[in-house]
Write a structure and sequence with these properties.
single chain; alpha/beta; Rossmann fold; Alkaline Phosphatase, subunit A; 2 domains; 5-stranded parallel β-sheet; 4-stranded antiparallel β-sheet; 12 helices; elongated
């Protein structure tokens, strides 16, 4: 069964906040059902961990042994949520208008939805959010009954009997997990950048910290892994699109600076690695950078100039017409973005650093990259990498030990060393001769 948009039509398509504006101080089920819910929850709700009562109301049906300080509610009517003595904290939000839950990842040990699942018009998006905020091995508990507000329940709920409703909820789980992934044809994906020699190259760096062990992508279905990563990016793109649409609707788009970037990437199977760590392959360090400010910046401008994330601070200061302190290390992109200079050049080289950023193994490394070459130095180890990105864009052929590249290696290392020295904070400004 596919989840057609028609399944989520309702007899009353008016704004839910209007329908639920009148408080209903009721349990929405009879007393026997309420007690049954409480007894079911008694052995599975943790005593000292956070629980989310999602689509909450005046009653949560939780055992009284659960302390309110550990319960967060999210519902549509503030008066009902204030009445609910089980809630230590609550949020008012219409999930049919905004399915993005206002909590950080892996916040809750249990999420409970009680006799409200039939009202969701975007259940798979809500389920994806639940998956995000649940801790590893967390629980989602859903109760449903034959009672409802019929004009607000979705069509597919009316069309299914009690047994079929369970299958419908199962379908929500399945689609929530695979909806975005299924947008990609695995046969058409490029798959990870990988050669068998990568396993030997990565084993050579086994003393250097990384979040995964080198593995042939064929052993973990590299294309599926890639599709799942792209699906996460797709989800981010869609929600950034919602922000953009709101800026347009509110008339703030032209006067808003938008920067779309990331602190790092994911290896996604390239060179046999997944996740992140002390490496400097393009998949990790070449992150997207999109900047928009319709009032002041050129539109449609594209450039492959070398830039660093440190360049964003002086760029924003320039945009706000504020002075740039002498100790700011970045170079403002304002001249490029405002069309005052050649967009194809910004820096001779860029650097990246890794200083004990992950637990377990203590690793320090630096990278310097110019238009053609990338040099990586794993400090404290007699190890390094040198790649010619013109002839070897996939970074498979390490030239570190190739004597014919000794001058290039030395020149890049000197530049890196000089830049590191110039970046040292020398303390407060000198006010005397010493």
């Amino acid at each position: 069964m596919k989840l057609s948009p028609q399944f989520f039509r309702r007899l009353d398509e008016s704004d839910d906040t209007l329908f639920y504006s009148q408080p209903r101080i009721t349990k929405h089920v009879d007393e026997n059902a309420s007690q049954a819910i409480t007894e079911f929850l008694r052995p599975i709700l943790p005593q000292n961990e956070l629980i989310l009562d999602l689509m909450s109301s005046a009653y949560s049906h939780f055992p009284l042994t659960i302390e309110p300080k550990n319960v967060v509610g999210l519902g549509l009517n503030q008066t009902e949520l204030e009445y609910n003595s089980m809630l230590g904290e609550f949020y008012v939000q219409n999930l049919n208008h905004n399915p993005v839950l206002p909590f950080v990842d892996q916040t809750f040990s249990v999420v409970v939805i009680t006799v409200s699942i039939q009202y969701l018009i975007q259940p798979t998006l809500v389920f994806q959010q639940i998956n995000r905020i649940l801790k590893h091995n967390g629980l989602l508990v859903i109760f449903y009954s034959n009672r409802m507000f019929p004009t607000k329940a979705v069509a597919v709920w009316h069309q299914n009997n009690q047994d079929q409703k369970q299958d419908l909820i199962d379908k929500y789980f399945q689609v929530a997990e695979n909806e975005l992934v299924d947008r990609f044809d695995l046969d058409q994906l490029p798959g990870p950048l990988f050669q068998p020699s990568d396993l030997k190259a990565q084993n050579r760096l086994s003393a250097i910290n990384f979040q995964s062990k080198p593995t042939d992508p064929a052993d973990f279905n590299g294309k599926l892994y890639q599709a799942k990563y792209w699906a996460m990016i797709e989800l981010i793109d869609e929600n950034v699109g919602r922000i953009m649409a709101t800026l347009e609707e509110s008339g703030q788009r032209d006067n808003t600076i938008i920067i779309f970037t990331s602190d790092h990437g994911d290896m996604t199977g390239d060179h046999g690695l997944r996740l992140k760590g002390c490496r400097f392959y393009e998949a990790l360090v070449r992150v997207p950078l999109i900047i928009s400010y319709p009032e002041k910046f050129e539109s449609g401008l594209r450039t492959d100039a070398l830039v660093e994330l440190t360049d964003l601070v002086p760029t924003l200061l320039d945009a706000a017409n504020l002075p740039i302190p002498n100790r700011v290390q970045g170079h403002s992109l304002w001249p490029i973005l405002s069309g005052q200079t050649n967009p194809d050049y910004h820096r001779d080289f860029v650097r990246s650093e890794f200083y004990q950023a992950l637990p377990d193994k203590t690793s320090y490394a630096t990278m310097i990259r110019d238009r053609r070459y990338k040099l990586v130095n794993y400090h404290g180890h007699n190890l390094g990498e040198l790649f010619d990105l013109d002839t070897d864009p996939g970074e498979f052929n390490n030239l570190w030990d190739d004597d014919s590249y000794a001058d290039i290696r030395f020149g890049l290392m000197k530049r890196s060393f000089d830049s590191l020295a110039m970046a040292i904070d020398i303390g407060s400004p000198r006010i005397s001769g010493y």
